[in-house]
């Protein structure tokens, strides 16, 4: 006896719906693949700490030494998190600030660093005469405070402050404007493949608002397509000038002020 096969008929519109779902799955997979690739790049860069440009003089056992603003600086790193490592953008901006003090004069200026990490940039700003507040996630603050105090005590005009700041969270409560206003906001290598880019830009806009006269200095190694996409949205919110570019290190330094709202 011949077996009868059952053919399932598709309902009208079902094929189109399945095609749309397949397309969405493909886009989601591409985004996931991009994120995984970017994370591998960051992990590899984190491990290859010896391949770092001047003025780093030596690297051993999670400690790196620099010479900026006439002082030797010793930084304790941690491999536990990207936020406790020194990245090329921070070194580039330290060099720029040291070499262009007439263009960017930090003496007696109120300076905020977001995503301060190990504190190298905040240390250099302090040594250049700024009153600095270094911020990062709560679990970063212990190492950040250690590095700041060991490298600025008896050297800087002002004792640098440390504060917890999670991008986009409780900004009006913890940093209300204009009580917390700054001449400069510093950010180095804060843009890479993570889920907080919108919150980062919200935080930048909070501290650099129209009429505040606050200048944002942002240095970043441009590693991924997501970095370039962030840069385009960044330029829509800020009047942006490219201050310096280091092609070999793929680092750009931008100066920005908030655009006036219409």
Summarize the structure.
It contains seven helices and ten strands. The chain is an alpha/beta fold and 262 residues long.
Keywords, please?
262 residues, 7-stranded mixed beta sheet, 3-stranded antiparallel beta sheet, 7 helices, 10 strands, 36% helix
Could you walk me through the main structural features you see in this protein, from its secondary elements to its overall organization?
- The chain has helices at residues 14-47, 88-99, 120-127, 141-152, 171-174, 197-207, 225-237, and strands spanning 58-60, 63-68, 71-76, 110-114, 131-136, 161-164, 184-188, 215-221, 238-246, 251-258.
- It has 262 residues and is of the alpha/beta class.
- The strands form two sheets. It has a seven-stranded mixed β-sheet with strand order 6-5-4-7-8-10-9. A three-stranded antiparallel β-sheet has the order 1-2-3.
- β2 (63-68) and β3 (71-76) form a beta hairpin.
- α2 (88-99) packs parallel to α3 and α3 (120-127) runs parallel beside α4.
- It is globular.
- The N and C termini lie far apart (80 Å).
- Residues 1-8 and 49-61 have low confidence and may be disordered.
Q: Overall pLDDT, averaged?
A: 81
Q: What structural class do helix, strand and pairing data support? A: alpha/beta
Shape estimate:
globular
Enumerate the strands of the largest sheet in spatial order, edge to edge or round the barrel. Answer: 6-5-4-7-8-10-9
Helix content: 25-40%
**Largest sheet, described in full?**
7 strands, mixed
The radius of gyration over CA amounts to 23 Å
* Uncertain stretches of 5 or more adjacent residues: 1-8, 49-61
Strand content: 15-25%
Q: How would you spell out the order of helices and strands?
A: HEEEHEHEHEHEHEHEE
| Intertermini distance | 80 Å
Number of E strands: 10
Count every helix, treating DSSP H or I runs of 4 or more residues as helices: 7
